[in-house]
Amino acid sequence: MILGNFCIRGLISLLALADFAITTSALKHRDEAAAPRLKNWGVVLFCAFDGQDIFGPLDALQLLAFQRQMNLYLIAETLDPVTSEPASPAMNSKNSSFWPIILPTHTFANAPELDVLFVPGGAGTRAPDVKSITDFIADRYPSLEYLITVCTGAGLAAKAGVLDGRRATTNKSAWATVTAWGPNVDWVRQARWVVDGNIWTSAGVTAGLDLTFAFMTEMFGYEQSNRIAALMEYIPNRNSSNDPFGASLVP
């Protein structure tokens, strides 16, 4: 009887190890299956964007691009240079000129087919006329594999109508403003990022980097994600509910 129980326990252990090995192998090779359908990546650009919303995720993703073919398209209303400079002089009272400039590669009218679209945040999301941006998001969403918003970029997606009936989050310090743009959205306060179907939304600014690592883990496996985090000497927040700003910054 003792021998029988030992054999049963041994068999269970072997099955568990086999399951672990299969799961680990799947995580390691998930990137090979995901690579063909996540090839073309777009970033929406507009004046007064937040730099970290864009450059943080792109810095991680460009390291991934050394391992597979990935194409990046920077998309704006026109091909004119796009700056993070505040549109209102009142927001630049010191008359600073410390604003990065990005050159778009495509316009909303001629952007290629995309697999993933990033929508950043920034003061520009509060501009009086963002219709060209929201129209582009609404038009492209049905053909996307994934839509990702960072910070107040969720507000643009909400205005586009693609978040209606879905769970989402945004920058907690802009909570009242952004959530008012999406009355039909199930806004989640206590969240570093939220996933609902093929839409990923992050909280404010640096949360976009945590979302990016979570996305890479889900799409390409933990091994790739962890390798890139180590190269960047960054420790990602792996728990989407671990949001220290959720309670303190919501009005």
UniProtKB/TrEMBL annotation:
Entry-linked Pfam families: DJ-1_PfpI
List the CDD domains hit by this protein, alphabetically: GATase1_PfpI_2 (cd03139)
Residues of the signal peptide: 1-26
Q: Does the keyword Transport apply?
A: no
List UniProt keywords, sorted A-Z: Signal
State if Signal is listed as a keyword: yes
Family matches, as Gene3D superfamilies: 3.40.50.880
Residues in domain DJ-1/PfpI? 106-217
Q: Which protein are we looking at?
A: DJ-1/PfpI family protein
